[in-house]
Amino acid sequence: MQANTHHALHGQVVSVNPFTEQEVGSYALLAKNSIDRKLDQADVAFKQWRKTALDERIALIKRVATQLAENKQGLATFITIEMGKPINQAKAEIDKCIALCDYYCKNAHQFLRAKPISSNLKNSRVEFQPLGVILGVMPWNFPFWQVFRFAIPTLLAGNTVVVKHASNVFGCAEAIAKTFNQACPENTYIHLPVSSDLIPEVIAHNAVRAVSLTGSEKAGREVAQQAGHHLKKVVLELGGSDPYVVLKDADISKAAERCATSRLINNGQSCIGAKRFIVESAVARQFEELLAEHICKAKMGDPLNKSTELGPLARQDLLENLHCQVLESTSRGAEIVCGGEIPVGKGFFYEATVLTNVAKDSPAYNEELFGPVAAVIPVLDEDEAMQVANETSFGLGSAIFTADSNKAEQFAANVEAGACVINDFVRSTPELPFGGIKNSGFGRELSEFGIHEFVNIKTIAG
């Protein structure tokens, strides 16, 4: 991703606080020869790490979780200063990483033990063996959580990890690396501060066996092409424009509250945040009024203030792009219920916004809005709701609000998405697989499915 507020200059990346617009850090980028050396070191470390008993790996990951708990306030502050997440949500992100460590430490033996399989061969079984060095290309919006949900199961499976993090959160990236390096053997986790144009060379390196990317559709296409050229596995978690369907028999008050919460999480910068609100016309006006009441009363301000509910967007270019999408949508007929402006003053803030009567040819209908903007799309009935829900190139999350369990199950069965939640909003949790279909990517993170993405599922018999 490009970042006009976090730019490379003479081999360095400068990080900018999105609230104060002031520089908060300058970080050196690795030269080409240093990149090769880091990857070779990760490969050497893998030869030993794969031989380390699983119980010992578990004990070391527990130490990582302890480091997180002991340094939660400082780590959360890093998140807030670098990308603008409200501090309470930043602390919750660290807590979620701790819970992830705990989940995989408790379940690693079950997930990785050999599984007997009945066949016409004797003693047939499947074993799960590590692949080697796995590259993670990670985003800025959940700078700890998305690294940890990739790294923890990958390391426990016996692989080593190198992470190319987003350039606007290199402070977080260094803090993550320090956390792992204080707990685990040297070079089992490596922070790789490189410019994005060097990622193809990293993927091509013989030591790298697979790639996991969380990011934009454009970045996903590029990484998938590069990985495919070198015949290396890739897992992609890309964007989303999640449909939230509200039927006329739903608890409209609850639906509006849950939808507003999802839309504003992380200042509206979440791939699985609610984006398109597809509402039966009989209750559309009631829903949009309640939604606007919840969304537009969110307290905007300093993200380090515990009472702040809506902080700035992470970068100026993201702010400008979001506003252009809103203006283009209104020029094509969408109506602004509330918000729709860039506030005067410091910080990359955007007003919490509700659009209604969103047209099919508008950005709010077809594109991902990465910020606190909700698009309400009235429909005649539940059949049209299903049609509109699937009328997108994305397929990450979805939700339906209805009092009829049969209608809910029917929607869940037919919506084109990696997840569907009934009468609540989508969220990722360690116990459940996470990922999308269509242009939202492929492969799964989290749960037992996630730990099996970067292993050799080896058949042994005889």
UniProtKB/TrEMBL annotation:
Q: Which UniProt keywords apply?
A: NADP, Oxidoreductase
Q: Does the keyword Transmembrane helix apply?
A: no
Q: Which GO terms describe its molecular function?
A: aldehyde dehydrogenase [NAD(P)+] activity; succinate-semialdehyde dehydrogenase (NAD+) activity
Record InterPro entries: Ald_DH/histidinol_DH, Ald_DH_C, Ald_DH_CS_CYS, Ald_DH_N, Aldehyde_DH_dom, ALDH_GabD1-like, GABD/Sad-like
Keyword match Kinase: no
The domain of life is: Bacteria
| Residue ranges annotated for the Aldehyde dehydrogenase domain, each copy included | 13-460
* Similarity section: Belongs to the aldehyde dehydrogenase family.
Q: What is this protein called?
A: Aldehyde dehydrogenase
UniProt organism field: Saccharophagus degradans (strain 2-40 / ATCC 43961 / DSM 17024)
Its ancestry begins with: Bacteria, Pseudomonadati, Pseudomonadota, Gammaproteobacteria, Cellvibrionales
